[in-house]
Design goal:
The structure holds 2 protein chains of 2 kinds. Chain A is an alpha+beta fold. Chain A contains 8 helices and 8 strands. Chain A has helices spanning about 40-45, 60-70, 80-85, 90-100, 105-130, 135, 140-155, 200-210, and strands spanning about 30-35, 50-55, 75-80, 160-165, 170-175, 185, 215, 220-225. In chain A, strands 1-2-3-4-5-8-7-6 form an 8-stranded mixed sheet. In chain A, a hairpin with a 5-residue loop joins strand 7 and strand 8. The longest helix of chain A has 23 residues, at about 105-130. Chain A starts with about 30 loop residues before the first strand and ends with a strand. The longest helix of chain B has 14 residues, at about 55-70. The chains are: A alpha+beta, B alpha/beta. At the A-B interface, helix 5, helix 7 and helix 8 of A face helix 1, helix 2 and helix 3 of B.
């Protein structure tokens, strides 16, 4: 992993101390498990004081372990089903919470939002749903969308995670999927796609905006960093 | 995403609002159907109220362009701003679409 900034253990740039309690009185370290119904007002859920938010599932007790296995606990984490993430303009919803928590400028928020949107769609389509690349290159773009919709109808519950770590004046983002598909391993060096290429621009856009971009092995997580 | 027709007729103006992302492909299909089924001469897409676009949205615009070309329908994008304008620049869309501020 190329990212090597040291973890900042003092007060965050937003002025929030790690031990502050949420409005409901629960410690910020305790994850918030929200229901499908609450996911309809996800922006209200994310305004609570916790750091970790998971859409409740039968195996939700494993979610925190899954994140911890990926490394140190994030300063912000959200896990939702692919269905919710796909239907709810997920990037915009999570950006409001991230911008507020980490004090991002408008310009930086736009850039992070763009990268998160691309990464989340990649995680859903190619990670969780494993829609084949040759389907995405079909000249009939709407056949590709139909592939995705059909796959999503079969597997709506597979989770996608957005994680954020703060390191001084830098943020590290991770978008992680729970499916069998693989994203690219290693550093991303996407070349500019053909001008009239109808799909496959997402990684190039992320790389154009973020400082560093890389995937882990076995291709389940995409990381990117921004200075704040 | 939503849209309204601000100028009907064969020289059509459409204003898009909200976000144009992967999940908006069904709604965008309505604009594509307009090009494929109606007798247009030109199409101007007003992006002044479009707040956000992703790479899937770019793909949909290219599909629209592909539908216009064999029908000799000129297509232009106007008033793209903010994040939308920046993504157009990264993707060099000024080389593919007539752009007006």
């Amino acid at each position: 992993m190329p990212f090597s900034l040291h973890r900042h253990t003092e007060q965050t740039s937003l002025g929030l101390l790690p031990e502050q309690r949420s409005e409901a009185g629960a410690p910020r370290g305790a994850p918030c498990f929200f229901t499908l119904k609450e996911a309809e007002e996800l922006e209200l859920v994310l305004a609570r004081g916790q750091r970790l938010f998971f859409q409740a599932a039968d195996s939700h007790n494993n979610e925190k372990d899954l994140l911890l296995a990926a490394g140190e606990e994030p300063d912000f984490g959200l896990g939702v089903s692919s269905r919710i993430a796909y239907d709810r303009h997920f990037g915009a919803l999570v950006m409001a919470a991230i911008s507020q928590r980490f004090g991002l400028s408008r310009t930086r928020s736009e850039q992070v939002h763009t990268c998160l949107q691309e990464a989340v769609v990649n995680a859903i389509v190619h990670g969780n749903l494993d829609v084949q690349k040759d389907c995405s290159q079909s000249s009939d773009l709407y056949a590709y969308y139909a592939c995705v919709e059909a796959a999503l109808a079969k597997q709506p519950a597979l989770r996608v995670y957005v994680l954020v770590w703060e390191y001084g004046r830098s943020l590290k983002f991770c978008v992680r999927h729970a499916g069998k598909g693989r994203l690219r391993d290693g550093l991303i060096t996407a070349t500019h796609p053909a001008l009239d290429q109808k799909s496959g621009r997402g990684l190039y856009i992320i790389q154009s905006l973020a400082e560093q971009v890389w995937c882990d092995e076995p291709g389940k997580s995409l990381y990117f960093t921004f200075a704040c | 995403m939503d849209y309204i027709t601000t100028k009907p007729g064969e020289d059509r103006h459409i204003s898009l609002t909200g976000q144009l992302t992967f999940a908006d492909n069904a709604k965008f299909r309505e604009i594509l159907n307009m090009v494929e089924q109606e007798n247009l001469r030109s199409l101007v897409l007003d992006f002044s109220k479009l707040e956000f676009i992703d790479s899937a949205g770019l793909g949909m615009l290219l599909l629209l362009r592909d539908a216009c070309q064999p029908r000799n329908i000129s297509i232009a994008i106007s008033s793209a701003k903010g994040q939308v304008e920046k993504i157009f620049l990264i993707s060099k869309f000024d080389q593919l679409f007539s752009m007006a501020s």
